[in-house]
Amino acid sequence: MRKLPIALALAASLALPALAEDRFPPLDPAQMTPAQRQVYDAIASGPRGGVRGPFNAWLRSPETGDRLQRVGEHLRFSSVIPTALNEFAILITARAWDAPYEWYAHYPLAVKAGLPEAVAAELAQGKRPGNMTEDQALVYDFLTELHRNHGVSDAGFNALKARFGEQGVVDLIAVSGYYVAVAMTLNVAQVKLPDGVPNPLPPLPR
After folding, report:
1. Which one is predicted more confidently, 148 or 8?
2. CATH number of 81-188
């Protein structure tokens, strides 16, 4: 049998597996450690209403998981950034990280909060959405520049600060950073979309 060139063989050995199966099997609450059960109960009884997404994986490190989930709860429900813009920021992060479950979970929340479906649809296609409001454009441009360049220009920083203040700048950075961690967890854990739900994020050219 003909051998693959070394470069191709190495690439094949390093290829990421398909998003097919959750690598962290669901934990039975009755079999959790006391620390895991405490975190599980805190999430289940909180405003999220259930233990989904990254939390099953995070329960494997309950202290880390608890600290993360508390940060996420604050950023989702207590940020100075308005809810529709906050959810838009999460979708921008999901698209930047090719995180279909993150998008699936937050798309309906974003639309319910007031984000136009057309804006989300263009974002999913990797486009700069048209017909954005000034606030939506501020958030999109700031976070897109941050994800792409790992920093932002003075113009981008000053525009966001003028609209939302220094706290708003920090809260927007924080919500995007938190959902990068969520996206990383979901993608590494290979958390599946529900049966029959197609991937909402088409592959983008790199």
Report:
1. 148
2. 1.20.1290
